[in-house]
Amino acid sequence: MAATTIELSRRIEHVATQYMVDRYSGPGNPMGTQILRSGDAVATKVPFVPTNELMNSAHGLEDPLQLADVLAFYGATQQPCWVHVPPYVPIELTDALVRNGFRVERYAAVMAAEPVPRSNRIAGADSAMNAVAVAEVGRAELDVFLDTMNVGFDSPAAVLPTLRRNQSFWCDVPTWHLLLARVGGEPAGAAMLSVHDDVGYLAAGSVLPQFRGRGIHAALIAARLAAAAARQCKIVCGAAAWGSQSQRNQQRAGLAIVHVKSVWTNRPAG
User: Fold this and answer.
1) Which of 53, 68, 209, 214 lies most in the core, judged by the most C-beta atoms within 10 Å?
2) Which of 45-53's residues contact partners 24+ apart within 8 Å by CB, and which partners?
């Protein structure tokens, strides 16, 4: 891997880590997120949801000696954890993970484009009734945005009030921009753009089940590219499960794979 690619990979991973810290320990820290910083490694822990990978994961870990700190951090609450491992980390780290009972659970494609691709596909339509309209929203539509986002990620209706409470600060993070997609005036999908200096990060994005397969995810990507360009971003980046539709949509929008990382866990299999 070329040095310039490794530099870009590290920068993207740093941006993604900062987004995760902001997301799970934002203003007021409503979820009581605990954070460990050990060298360049950052780990987040939300003990009341110990099996949630996104909330209980370590990023930026390269020195195998720091793994002991990470294990002690999660071991204090007797819960498993996940470690994100980009391909530039030394083999000694993966050897240490294996020795400590970790296994690879999944892979993620990490993508970027420089400069930000320009896209005219912010709205698509089979007819006026089926047009996809994407707009940035604020506090007045925050609950609609959050419910759309969470149901799009298949969260059951019973947990939506709790999620609204835990995510009530999302419109107060100055680097975040919330976008809501509507079809025929009805909420259909939601996504977020997180801006870090001159880097725009395509963060969480989801589509309601009844609207899937109609180009809404692609429209949300296009709208976020336009929002990133408007904010003078020089680079846009994102990540997705390897081989997923999200990965394909980001590539069609002009992003290219920078690296594929593995996500390791010590959660018991089965």
Assistant:
1) 214
2) 45/73, 45/74, 45/77, 45/79, 45/81, 47/77, 47/79, 50/77, 50/79, 50/80, 51/79, 51/80, 51/267, 53/82, 53/105, 53/263, 53/265
Q: What is the pLDDT of residues 235-247, one digit of tens each?
A: 999 999 999 999 9
In a domain, 244, yes or no: no
89: DSSP letter: S
DSSP string over 43-87: EEE-TTSTT-TTTSEEES---GGGHHHHHHHHHTTT---EEEE-T
- Tally of structural domains, the chain: 2
Query: Per the domain annotation, does 119 fall within a domain?
Result: no
* Predicted model pTM: 0.92
Domain of 15?
3-109
Relative to beta strand 199-207, strand 235-241 is parallel
DSSP state of 127: S
Q: Which two tokens stand for residue 45?
A: 């822990």
Helix axes 67-75, 91-99, angle to 10 degrees: 40
Residue 95 belongs to some domain of the structure? yes
